[in-house]
Amino acid sequence: MRIRLKEFNGVAVWKWVTNDDSCGICRMPFDASCSECRYPGDQCPVLHGECRHCFHEHCIMKWINSQQTNKLCPMCRGEWKSLP
Amino acid sequence: MSSLKPKEIDFNEQWSIVLGTVRSVISMGRFGQTDRAIWQERFFDIYYLCVATPDSHAERLYEETKKFLEDHCKSMKKDIAESDQNMLSIYVKYWTEYKTGSDWLNTLYAYLNTHYVKKRQANDMDTNYQPFECNNDTIDPPLVEIGEMALDCWTKIIIEPLKDRLVKLLLEQIHLDRICECVNQTTIKGVIMSFVDVCQHRKLNILELYEKSFESPLLQATGEYYREEGNRCLAKLDCIQYMRKILLLIDDEEFRSRKFLNPTSYSKVYNECLQRLVCDHFDTFKSECNELIIKEDLDALRNMYKLLKPTHIGINYMVEKLQDNIARIGHEKVQSLKGENLSTLFVETLLELHTKYMNVIKETYANDPEFVSSLDKACATIVNMKYGNRLSAKAPELLAHYCDSLLRKSSKAATDSEIEEKLLSSITIFKYLDDKDYFQRFYQKMLARRLINQQSISIDAEEFMVTKLKQICGYEFTGKLARMFQDIKVSDDLNIKFLEYVRSELSSSSSSQNQTMTNLLGLDFNIYVLQQNSWPVAQTITNTFILPHLLEKPLHMFEAFYGKKYSGRKLCWMYNLSNAEIRMTHLDRSYFVTMGTYQMAVLLQFNDHQQLTLTEIEEAIKINIKELEKQVLSLIDAKFLIGNTSELTMNSVISINFDYKSKRTKFKIPLISQKEANHDSESSQKAIEEDRKFYLQAVIVRIMKARKVLKHNSLIEEVITQSKQRFLPSIHIIKKCIEILIDKQYLERRTNDEYSYIA
């Protein structure tokens, strides 16, 4: 071996794992924040439902809290259950 | 003491007794002394006259006293008028005596004053109040207290007929004082002040007599004197000498005012002097001003400032000239800068200029705010000047570079306080930037490089600077920068946790708890995990890059570790920002070189081959061909590799250089060439333009949301006010943004020049 790798200083950015580009409620990309937040990232997380739909946590919670009776996913009208 | 009971009194008999005392009191003993007993007696005599039965003699007493005072004044007037040379001193002598006497007399007539004069005055107020018929000549002069009556007599009988002669003499005396002849100060002041004192009882226009009879002729004479004096001086002196001379003249005249005049005249005389000596010769000042500024004759400029500041012309002309001059010097200096260290030279030149003129303004112009703001304006034009065909000023980039050079670890050791001081002074320049967003962009980029490459001199210094920027531009401006620091802190913590994770995964026995990363994974391994939007990192295009074998395991382990720690997130590797240290053992000695990931990947291919074509390398590591060419070229530039053609083609044969030699054994090679860096600044300019459009759209929407309907011009104005902190938007770009928002149906046009917000 003429040339050996001694050290690696890696840089990575993290993104939310999503199955869509943008949030179905606020229409903002998941890489950006919901309309209420100033910055994306830690403060504006993405929430996945059992129905495989995902939204900004702030958006879906607002939606769920505004529903009187059934808590339904705004995309598929199935019952909304958040995945951990 | 006799009874106070009113009794019958023969007026003539009693008056002749009272008169004797009155005469002695008013003349302060010139016509016989009045002792205490007599004084007491006369006091009661006046009382008895006033309360006499069957009828009060008050009215007669008043009239007789008035007649006496008039006669007394007439005789003094005769004396004064006939004394030729000594008129002023005789006047003052009589006046001093009469003034004191009249005060005493007023006390002697206390009963008459309170019980006759005051009551009659009150009655007149009630019954004779005729608002539309006042100042009627046929009405008797109103009753006044005896003291006041005495002063009125003096005014009427002595001052009125003699004032022209008196004033003429006064002006002569003052003129003599001006040409340094000896004059009697007490006499002059006494005469002048008599014009004020004689009216002291009046309720209105106390100064009318003084101002009309004396002050206005005085001002006229003063004006004429200094007009001549000014012309005379200017005929034999140059402007600098003239200013020095007239400052002395004006000082003298101020002193003279305090010697002779009533305080209300000080400023009037001063203004008259300035008018004649300064304002009348403003053209002379004007023509000299620019030259003095260029020659930096600070003494002369200080004099000019002192002279012009209090005039109505003011210092605008000087301020303007200074500003032009600073701007001109600044432009010349900035344009003549060249050399490697342009950013440092640029900032230090500007700071030097700024400090110099701050001092000049402090020493010469008494820190006058108008001059301070002229310096600010001049600095702003220098800083924001667009040289050549550039669309933007160079200053934001240079200043960011300067900050970078301060905050980057370097051989030049400087103490923390020195660094902070320099950073603080760079803020001075920052404040002048129009395009603060440009600065932010460059600053962010360089900060990212410092943080990722661990080149930052200290986190304290970094945070110090960001705090300062925040103080000026607000939270929004530095939000991203603050979040970058946060990511670095989080990543440091992650690396420690990752090492623990690797130990627990890879070593079964507890004895290996102290193993290093190199022991466990074959190389030292550090990771920064960043939040995408806070860092100036480009979106990665689909990445086909084939990792060097040695890196596969650590990276996959880290991904697994990260996934466990944060669910719902995935990592995207930014190889273009990552770097690696390699050890080259095929040369005269071992070299440790830090380089980019792709450079490292290219170089590692030569472990198994002496030479490779570009195509072969491309197949081995699978990166974009343009990117690959750059990497290979940079390695050829660094002399690690040798190409067989000067221009790279797909068939170029690249071979490893076995003759490589360097003095240093541990170093770093640049990731991109200089040409690339220039291109970089161009592309970031485009990115900034895009950012501005987004920012302006947000501002417009915010304004329109609040105002609902707004005229075009008001909207433009408001947008400029709100974005000034960041940059000065052109009208053109604002219009463009409004168009975009109309297309996106945020706004609509109501009439030609009015917009409304669509909710």
UniProtKB/TrEMBL annotation, chain A:
<dbReference type="GO" id="GO:0031145">
    <property type="term" value="P:anaphase-promoting complex-dependent catabolic process"/>
</dbReference>
<dbReference type="Pfam" id="PF12861">
    <property type="entry name" value="zf-ANAPC11"/>
</dbReference>
<keyword id="KW-0479">Metal-binding</keyword>
<dbReference type="InterPro" id="IPR001841">
    <property type="entry name" value="Znf_RING"/>
</dbReference>
<dbReference type="InterPro" id="IPR013083">
    <property type="entry name" value="Znf_RING/FYVE/PHD"/>
</dbReference>
<dbReference type="GO" id="GO:0061630">
    <property type="term" value="F:ubiquitin protein ligase activity"/>
</dbReference>
<keyword id="KW-0862">Zinc</keyword>
<dbReference type="GO" id="GO:0097602">
    <property type="term" value="F:cullin family protein binding"/>
</dbReference>
<protein>
    <recommendedName>
        <fullName>Anaphase-promoting complex subunit 11</fullName>
    </recommendedName>
</protein>
<dbReference type="GO" id="GO:0051301">
    <property type="term" value="P:cell division"/>
</dbReference>
<keyword id="KW-0833">Ubl conjugation pathway</keyword>
<keyword id="KW-0131">Cell cycle</keyword>
<dbReference type="GO" id="GO:0005680">
    <property type="term" value="C:anaphase-promoting complex"/>
</dbReference>
<keyword id="KW-0863">Zinc-finger</keyword>
<comment type="similarity">
    <text>Belongs to the RING-box family.</text>
</comment>
<dbReference type="InterPro" id="IPR051031">
    <property type="entry name" value="RING-box_E3_Ubiquitin_Ligase"/>
</dbReference>
<dbReference type="InterPro" id="IPR024991">
    <property type="entry name" value="RING-H2_APC11"/>
</dbReference>
<dbReference type="GO" id="GO:0008270">
    <property type="term" value="F:zinc ion binding"/>
</dbReference>
<feature type="domain" description="RING-type">
    <location>
        <begin position="34"/>
        <end position="77"/>
    </location>
</feature>
<keyword id="KW-0498">Mitosis</keyword>
<keyword id="KW-0132">Cell division</keyword>
UniProtKB/TrEMBL annotation, chain B:
<protein>
    <recommendedName>
        <fullName>Cullin-5</fullName>
    </recommendedName>
</protein>
<dbReference type="InterPro" id="IPR016158">
    <property type="entry name" value="Cullin_homology"/>
</dbReference>
<dbReference type="InterPro" id="IPR016157">
    <property type="entry name" value="Cullin_CS"/>
</dbReference>
<dbReference type="InterPro" id="IPR059120">
    <property type="entry name" value="Cullin-like_AB"/>
</dbReference>
<keyword id="KW-1017">Isopeptide bond</keyword>
<comment type="similarity">
    <text>Belongs to the cullin family.</text>
</comment>
<keyword id="KW-0833">Ubl conjugation pathway</keyword>
<dbReference type="InterPro" id="IPR036317">
    <property type="entry name" value="Cullin_homology_sf"/>
</dbReference>
<dbReference type="Pfam" id="PF00888">
    <property type="entry name" value="Cullin"/>
</dbReference>
<dbReference type="Pfam" id="PF10557">
    <property type="entry name" value="Cullin_Nedd8"/>
</dbReference>
<dbReference type="InterPro" id="IPR016159">
    <property type="entry name" value="Cullin_repeat-like_dom_sf"/>
</dbReference>
<dbReference type="InterPro" id="IPR019559">
    <property type="entry name" value="Cullin_neddylation_domain"/>
</dbReference>
<keyword id="KW-0007">Acetylation</keyword>
<dbReference type="GO" id="GO:0031461">
    <property type="term" value="C:cullin-RING ubiquitin ligase complex"/>
</dbReference>
<comment type="pathway">
    <text>Protein modification; protein ubiquitination.</text>
</comment>
<dbReference type="InterPro" id="IPR036388">
    <property type="entry name" value="WH-like_DNA-bd_sf"/>
</dbReference>
<feature type="domain" description="Cullin family profile">
    <location>
        <begin position="394"/>
        <end position="636"/>
    </location>
</feature>
<dbReference type="GO" id="GO:0006511">
    <property type="term" value="P:ubiquitin-dependent protein catabolic process"/>
</dbReference>
<dbReference type="InterPro" id="IPR036390">
    <property type="entry name" value="WH_DNA-bd_sf"/>
</dbReference>
<dbReference type="InterPro" id="IPR001373">
    <property type="entry name" value="Cullin_N"/>
</dbReference>
<dbReference type="GO" id="GO:0031981">
    <property type="term" value="C:nuclear lumen"/>
</dbReference>
<dbReference type="GO" id="GO:0031625">
    <property type="term" value="F:ubiquitin protein ligase binding"/>
</dbReference>
